[in-house]
Each structure stands twice: as C-alpha cells, then as structure tokens.
Design brief:
Layout (H helix, E strand, L loop, with lengths): L5 H8 L4 H33 L9 H37 L4 H26 L8
Helix pairs in contact: 1-2, 1-4, 2-3, 2-4, 3-4
C-alpha cells in the first residue's frame, strides 16, 4: 500500500501469475487511496499535533507537483503517482489541490491499473532473464 513498485516484486517472489500480481498491486494502491481520501484531514491533524516544526513549503517534490498540476491536472498527478509520488503522496497532492473524490478515485483507479499491468508484465518478462544469476 505504501510503495507501488513493491507489489509486483512481492507477487513475483510469491510465484503469483502476472494478472494476480497486477490485481493485488492495484488493490493495495486503491486501499491506501481510499483511506487517505476519506481520512486525510484527520490524519493531517494527527500528524500536525506531533510535528515539531512546519514542513518546508517549497521543496523539490512540491515544485514538481505544482508543475504537473499546471500542465496536466489530476490526470498528470494520477499518472505519476505510482512512479514518483507513491499512492499516499499522490492522494495527498490531489487533495491539496481540492480534487473532488469521485474524480480522484476514478483517475487513480485507471492509472493504477495501467501501471500495475505494465510493472507486472515487465517484471515477469525481465526477471527470468536474470535467473542464471540467482
């Protein structure tokens, strides 16, 4: 649920089929997206209570998120969530831009399933090439 790329690697290690791996990877992502979407403000308040100092406003990651948002909106954020932002980070970015929940969930579902299949098929195709080394 935290790191999208770990799903296909774990699925391969458990000897699941590529489509089972893609489905489980998508489910893990969507569970974290749904939890953060509906409990995000509560989680931010809890974290804010324990944070000693405020986070930097202009980090390289926030600049990237703003640049993606300006160029391609929610579609760009959802597209890059599995690659760069992680499911939790991408969801928090989308919520900070006040994206409506149905749009957020739909976009994350679409791009999570696309990247889940791409990562799973790629891993199941690449790992056997290195079988002689392990």
């Amino acid at each position: 649920m935290v790191k999208f790329v770990a799903g296909p690697v774990t699925g391969y290690a458990l000897q699941l089929t590529w489509y089972e791996t893609a489905l489980c990877t998508l489910l893990g992502m969507m569970i974290s997206v749904v939890v953060i979407t509906f409990l995000g403000t509560l989680i931010q308040q809890i974290i804010g209570n324990y944070r000693r100092q405020k986070p930097r406003l202009f980090s390289s990651r926030t600049r990237l998120a703003v640049k993606v948002w300006k160029k391609s909106g929610m579609t760009g954020i959802a597209f890059l969530t599995p690659l760069l932002f992680t499911p939790i980070g991408g969801t928090l970015i989308a919520l900070s831009f006040k994206v409506k929940r149905p749009i957020l969930l739909t976009q994350m579902l679409i791009w999570g399933s696309v990247w889940g299949v791409v990562f799973s098929v790629a891993l199941y195709w690449i790992f056997p090439l290195f079988k002689q080394f392990y």
